[in-house]
Amino acid sequence: MRRDSIFYKLFQQYPSVLFQLLENPPQNAELYKFDSVAVKEPKFEIDGVFLPPESETKGTVYFSEVQFQKDEQLYERLFAESHLYFYRNRNRFSDWQAVIIYPSRNIEQSDISPHRSLLNGDQVHRIYLDELGDIQQLPIWVGLMVLTTLKESQAPAAAKYLLTKSNQESSSNEMILEMITTIMMYRFENLTLREVQVMLGISLERSRAYQEIKQEGRQEGRQEGLKESALNLVMRQLTRRLGEFPEETKNTISGLSLTNLENLGEALLDFTSLQDLQSWLSQVQD
């Protein structure tokens, strides 16, 4: 399960979720921006950095690390990268803090003695998702983090609860729907998107691809415009899902009717390879 990409996407869409994990978040948490940064000499890539808003007053930079596999040199790397970045950008920040997110304590680095001063201080925060409590008592975005750690027997009920809660109180329910669907697809890799949607009680018509096709069509208001919008969207979705594919295949798709383009817009959600696409096109042509 590629949890790193899930958390990266979550932080991008809702940066302040990180500060919901801390007892003393900054007062301007909603203004922070999530980013990845490069540190030269030597070259480090820091994937999770929360940058304070640019202003006359220097702010605190937060480094985040999502760790779902044991790494016996995690703290050596994290502190080396963080300190070097802070040193290179000392004029921009007044302080630094680090947040390490684990599914449970047994994933943490075994030998932490060399870093005891930092780990026992107030600059480094270790979060263990399985110790945050009942998912029904947590903020929705924190609940999404916990959802990635639940057993298969627990995950469907928890996902349904988060969907219901987001419908009741969140203005970002479409974003949350997408996140939950993504998490469950990774959690149940043997299931198709449709099967996951059935599990969660989500209708296909709520999917982003379907809605975009309909919305773009309504805006065009003409049959030809509708087909062009559907074709452009399907091409983007296929490229995002399968990567680049042969020009001959693109030409075949361009020749599809509007109805078949809409059908392809739904079918592609289950594609995992170029062969799946070509098989689908062969069936349509037959």
CA-to-CA gap between the ends?
37 Å
Derived from helix and strand composition plus strand pairing, the structural class reads alpha/beta
The fraction of residues assigned to DSSP E strands is 5-15%
- Proper CATH architecture of the largest domain: 3-Layer(aba) Sandwich
CATH class of the largest domain equals Alpha Beta
Give the mean pLDDT. Answer: 83
Total DSSP E strands = 5
Proportion of helical residues: 40-55%
The largest sheet, given as strand count, sense and whether it forms a barrel, is: 5 strands, mixed
Number of helices: 12
Q: What is the H/E order? A: HEEEHEHEHHHHHHHHH
Which value, in Å, is the CA radius of gyration? 22 Å
Low-confidence runs: 216-222
**What does the overall shape look like?**
globular
